[in-house]
Give the backbone structure.
Amino acid sequence: MKKTAIIFFSVTSLLAAVSCSDVKRKPGRIYMPDMAYSRAYETYSESPIWKDGQTNREPVAGTIKRGDMLPFHLAKDRAGDTANYFASRAVKNPLPRLTLTEHKEAERLYLVNCGICHGTKLDGNGPLWNDGDGPFPSKPAALVGEPRYDQMPEGQMYYSVTYGKNLMGSYASQLNPKQRWMVIAYIKALQTKTVPTSDSVLIAAPALVDSAAKAPAAATK
C-alpha cells in the first residue's frame, strides 16, 4: 500500500511538473491561426525557396528599386587617375528645374549635409571655418562667387558628392541619387541667381533668395 502511494505521488508530481512547464508543445486550439502565426517569411527566418535557406537576399545585379533613378554610370577613379572625374563634366542633371517646393527641400538637404562646411550662404564660411575661428585649418570652397565652382558642370559636382573629392568624403550614404541632384540644382540656382518663385514658374531674380520673393509683385504691376 505504501509502495503504491509513493508511485502514485511520483507520477502525479511528474505530470504536474510537465504540465506547468513553460514549453508548450501543443498550444491547443487557436481561433484565428493566421493572426497567431505569420504566413509570410519573417526577416532572418529560414526559407525553403532558396538552397541556402536564407530569407534575406541581395538585390539582383543590375536592377534598381521601383521609383529610383538610374545609377551613375561613371565609376570612381582609381588612385592617381582622373579620367572619369573629367568625363563627368558631360553628364547633365536628369531632373527638370526645381519647383518652389522642391527648391525648399533641396535647401533643407543642403543645410543638413553641406552647410556645416560650405556655409548657409554658400560662401565657405560654415561653422567648421567660422571666419578662421573654427576647427578647420583652411576655408572650405565657396560655392557661390568663386569662378571655379560657378563654372563647374553639374555632372562633376555630382561625381564629387557621390565619391568624395579632396578633403570632402562621399555623401552617397546620406543622400540618395535624386537628393544629390536636387542639392546640385539648388547650388546652381543660387549661382545663376535663378530661383523658383512658385511650383510652376521659374524666373531670373536680380539677387539670390530675398529679392526673388519680391519678383512676382513687381511683375504684376
Observations:
- The CA atoms of residues 51 and 221 lie 72 Å apart.
- Strands lie at 194-196, 202-204.
- The chain has nine helices and two strands.
- The mean pLDDT is 83.
